[in-house]
Amino acid sequence: MSRRRFVLLVLDGVGAGELPDAAAFGDVGSNTLGNLAQKMNGLCLPNLQRMGLGNILPLEGVASTHQPLASFGRMREKSMGKDSTLGHWELAGLVTSRALPTYPQGFPQEVLDEFVRRSGVPGILGNKTASGTVILEELGAEHVRTGCPIVYTSADSVFQIAAHEEVIPLERQYEICRIARELLVGEHAVARVIARPFLGEEGSYARTTNRRDFSLLPWEPTILDAVAEAGVEVVAIGKIFDLFAGQGIERHIASKNNAMGVDRLLEVLAEKGERDQLILLNLVDFDMLWGHRLDSAGFKGGLEAFDARLPEILPAFGAGDLLLITADHGNDPTGTSTDHSREHVPLLVFYPGLTGKDLGTRASFTDVAATIGDWLLATPFGPGQSLLQELAS
């Protein structure tokens, strides 16, 4: 076959049951898919069911199937965290053995003083662990009055900056975040600096879709670098570009929500060309809109909306194409925590006409990078185990 394409589709935050070390992360009992299905009296996901989602774990409303369209399994995260950055890096072949810094008591004063000095903002508000929606209710009006950005964090390794788009224009917000990213290195090298723009009036503030993540650069080459060096076009749709700080990515396509992300994917798949491609798509709404906001009904609706798009996606795959659907961590909306959860992630691998196999529980997300390397370079990449031989057996 003259052209090969590999599509990695990440359902952000769609976990598949607690990991063995979940207790160390405060996540005992987390099961994003399982708990959601139980709470909502079942999920209606006929296309994911046919692919084999119900073969991965018990899901009310999603039965197992004897001849699934995709091979199925779960993966464990080896990296010491439950963050989007570390999850995506591990999917790309890079295991992070040391946890990135978190700040449950807020950031040190010397860090904030330097941030204010470098950025030129009049000061900051907040500096604590908080829900993004709650902190807007608490400090949004004071921010509008003073012009001081709101700085807050979560259980993850993040430095978040919230500002009203009519008080601090978007480009200025992004500039402030870039300054914070340059500052937060070494001891304070958080995984991500996140711009959290919002609009509205007091009592009705709401975050917009203009969020941007400013991640650490991966400290070692990933599969993106390896395939790009070999001449493969690396296409990143949505949040992917930010999570890798652009490293190894040739073409970035913006996407503000799940529906737009699927639209952009279909457009890329419809393109005519001769170059091999690695296409990466992150569907962020599961995490950003529903998981963090404990919105089980929204999460269920989002899964069902994605499921309804699969009859558009799967026929776009031909003999040289492989689709892998997974997640980067959990974000169980059924509990009381608004943070990510330490979970297995689902694994569905689709190749047209190939009968699905049980891939079991994989020891690391790095099996994805190994499989990408095997598919596009004929050489597995990184420490993981390629899935190709099992798929074809």
Keywords:
single chain, 393 residues, alpha/beta, six-stranded mixed beta sheet, 14 helices, globular
What does this structure look like?
The protein is an alpha/beta fold and 393 residues long. Helices cover 34% and strands 19% of the residues. It contains 14 helices and 14 strands. It has helices at 32-39, 46-51, 53-56, 84-91, 109-119, 132-146, 170-183, 223-229, 240-243, 258-270, 285-291, 296-313, 366-377, 388-392, and strands at 5-11, 71-75, 125-129, 150-153, 158-164, 192-199, 206-207, 212-215, 233-237, 251-253, 277-283, 321-326, 345-350, 358-362. Helix 5 (109-119) crosses helix 7 and helix 10 (258-270) runs parallel beside helix 12. The mean pLDDT is 96.
Physical arrangement of strands within the biggest beta sheet: 10-9-11-1-12-13-2-14
What radius of gyration results from the CA coordinates? 21 Å
Helix content: 25-40%
Molecular shape: globular
Q: Strand portion, in percent? A: 15-25%
Contiguous uncertain segments of 5+ residues: none
Largest sheet: 8 strands, mixed
Q: What's the β-strand tally?
A: 14
The ordered string of helix (H) and strand (E) elements is: EHHHEHHEHEEHEEEHEHEHEHHEEEHH
Number of helices, where a helix is a run of at least 4 consecutive DSSP H or I residues:
14
Structural class: alpha/beta
Q: What's the mean pLDDT score?
A: 96
Distance between the termini: 20 Å
Seen as an oligomer or otherwise, the chain set is single chain
